[in-house]
Amino acid sequence: MASPVLSFRVEDDLVRQLDQLAEATERDRQYHLKRALARYVESEAWHINAIAEGIADADAGRLTDLNAIKAKWVSRAKDRTDRQS
Questions:
Q1: In whole angstroms, what is the distance from residue 23 CA to residue 19 CA?
Q2: Is residue 37 part of a domain?
Q3: Mean pLDDT of the chain
Q4: Three-class DSSP category at 4
Q5: How many domains does the chain have?
Q6: Which one of 18, 37, 50, 61 has the fewest CB atoms closer than 10 angstroms to its CB?
Q7: What is the largest CA-CA distance in the chain?
Q8: Do the domain assignments include residue 1?
């Protein structure tokens, strides 16, 4: 079964950088493009899923008080400042 073909335009400088990477690693463009696309899609999918989970938690009433979060970060910043002095 043949894989689908994707085609898109990119800037010349990006192509030059990709070619340099391909030459340095002794891999072809396709290898690096497939790897980069897989990483990007995985990262974006994680982000979308995290947002969906957060919305589901909010809809279910599982929320954290904003003042508690602020107090936690203020405490962390104070601890860091105290350690540096």
A1: 6
A2: yes
A3: 95
A4: coil
A5: 1
A6: 61
A7: 64
A8: no
Residue 41 lies in a domain: yes
Q: Is 23 part of any domain?
A: yes
Which pLDDT score is estimated for 82?
87
Domain that holds residue 55: 12-84
- Between CA 41 and CA 49 the distance in angstroms is 12
Q: Fill in the amino acid letter for 26.
A: E
H or E stretch at 15: helix 12-25
**85, two tokens:** 């002095």
Per-residue pLDDT tens for 40-56?
A: 999 999 999 999 999 99
Whole-model pTM: value is: 0.67
